[in-house]
């Protein structure tokens, strides 16, 4: 609910342009890119229940505080803008964006812990159980993402944005207790969850004690994970050993924990990527990350483009619901396909199916009704009452497009371009092919996502799940940021075909990267020998 609403809040705060929204998207992407490995490393080093407790508290506290600040700002906007010659306005926006980013980082920690670590222990490391449980989690996630924004969107539409922000604050205050209670019950029901890295924690405490007191150079090897050993080796190489250094040096080191934390964070970032790349499943993860560099999804970009082509809010809402249903269907089919043909083949089929479906999007470039300059059908286009420039502005109309993402009501009016001023086409073949390709590709997309997720769960060591999944999230965010940069450079609706082609190419590269992993793991992609044998018969 919050991830949907924060975009609307930022547009309501600064309706004149998308600078504030773009700033939030870019800064949050940068933070996740650089902090993903560090957050994952913290998850690895912290006991499971403590990780969930801290992440839930920080996430919900940040959301509550941010929602209250938004409500206060929107209620007394005039007074705040005039405070301190406009500095109050700037400070409020900084606080809102900062709290939203903190909430997102805390959410990342919780997701890595529960979805990528807990679930492996709950499934008793059984691949079949793991497949069904990951699919069930994804199904719940898709259903919640479809239903919760509807409630928030209708509340903001028919009451007010302020009421919506206060509702979110109250909801997060209540839900944090419910979430923790349910997770605590799961923690009690699965004894193996309580055994995570107690020895690692003890080893860390002993190492820290030895560093400060200067009485020993090492700790017992049996209490350290490979990651801690790597950190210890690096520390031994770059710092004087306690028995070789002067007491003053040890004292200075102990008195500057911030410096130690800073360089430790840099090392964790570097070490996280090294750990990620050592696994054979890294090409599969990179293939999944490449899929994030796409404008062919139900985000503000594509929805805004569809709106500029005359698709109403009601139709957009229905199309998004269809896409969600297709995605949910894939979560039912995925475990059965995986049981029949295995993970690698399932991934190959999933990527291939996604690429095949998105071919419809390529066809939309030259189909009748397309708005592109190099291929037009003038006899199919009715005269419009607005210029092409007004139509192209709809791609950035987040207020209308994000509302229509989750609403099937047709009475939501755009604040920038009215529906009657948007270009109306006699042929909707082009936009129908585009949306049809995006909707049908949801099946392959989510199947591929589930496949890669389970590959990481099965192949990554328990002590390194957090840092590896943190790096994967960083890769995903890097590609997402690249998408936004491309949209900034290619902003006209008449040039949207360039985004379609680039997105299609990146998804093909993603499929090739997964195929590379599959070939390394299995020694082949397809059984050509069996096909040839059958043809000879």
UniProtKB/TrEMBL annotation:
GO molecular function: iron ion transmembrane transporter activity
Pfam families for this protein: FPN1 (PF06963)
Domain of life: Eukaryota
Residue span of region Disordered: 199-248
TM annotation in the entry: 20-42, 54-74, 94-114, 253-273, 285-308, 314-334, 346-367, 425-445, 496-515
UniProt feature, compositional bias: Polar residues: 212-226
Compartment list: Membrane
Topological category with respect to the lipid bilayer: Multi-pass membrane protein
Composition bias type Basic and acidic residues, residue spans: 234-246
GO CC terms of this entry: membrane
Location (main, coarse): membrane
Alphabetical list of CDD domains matching this protein: MFS_SLC40A1_like
Keywords for the protein's UniProt record, in alphabetical order: Ion transport, Membrane, Transmembrane, Transmembrane helix, Transport
InterPro entries for the chain: Ferroportin-1 (IPR009716), MFS_trans_sf (IPR036259)
Role played: May be involved in iron transport and iron homeostasis.
PANTHER family to which the protein is assigned, alphabetical: SOLUTE CARRIER FAMILY 40 MEMBER (PTHR11660:SF57)
Record family assignment: Belongs to the ferroportin (FP) (TC 2.A.100) family. SLC40A subfamily.
Name of the featured protein: Solute carrier family 40 member
Species of provenance: Octopus vulgaris (Common octopus)
